[in-house]
Amino acid sequence: MLVVDVVEKGSWGFARARDRDQLVVPAGQFIVRHTGPSWRFAVKAHTSTTTKLVLPVAHLGPLIHRRPVLGSADSAEMRLLLAHARMIDDRLDDLSPAGARAARGALLELALGVLTQQVDGTEPQLAPALVQAAKDLVRGHLSDPELSPRMLARELNISVRTLHRAFAATDESVTAHIRHQRLEQTRLALTGPLARPGVAELARFWQFADTSHFVRAFKKQYGQTPAQYARSQEAPRT
What we know:
- A four-stranded antiparallel β-sheet has the order 6-1-4-7, covered by helices on one side. The protein has a three-stranded antiparallel β-sheet with strand order 3-2-5, with no helix packed on it.
- With 238 residues, the chain is an alpha+beta fold.
- The radius of gyration is 22 Å and the shape is elongated.
- It has three domains: 1-73; 74-170, no CATH class; 176-232, Homeodomain-like (Arc Repressor Mutant, subunit A, Orthogonal Bundle).
- 48% of the residues lie in helices and 16% in strands.
- A hairpin with a 6-residue loop joins strand 2 and strand 3 (23-26).
């Protein structure tokens, strides 16, 4: 089998039993290696966290020639692989045998992309992974004024057209997803226990063109203006 370790915090040290030099993988990096008794690793308890994937070696093993492959966990290829792995983990119990085979095929294709540092974004079976990886990026960049389909496509190393085509199979476009997620953040801000921000402040922070545009979008999604929604969340006076 091949093991993929993505180091999220701290660092992991790896070495072959017969090698003197230890290989240290810091946070933000990954290592792909053959598993087996010749490998050992050392890590300080409670100081490091990783994501681990175990993959069949048949189609992928020859690409690393018994040597470990290292790279950035922020690479487009690794983003797609991890997004797809999370989807499989969440939905495995609901997959039919055919669905499980398709998910496995896509997982191997994406692992191949990590090893070769390129992914065929036009491959239809990879569309769900593209969508999930894009949504993961959106979640981390909602307040970023640069967030756009173009920025997402650049981060995933695909064309804007490919990104739009992947979202075409979902119930919303890329732009609509960004807008809906930003609106949800404003709704949560209006229901929080802390002092509620003003409408203009919310519009500015979550990158709406102006206050009136924000109010119209909020009312269309939630059926009330932000001010009306905030009042509806107030605890009744006793």
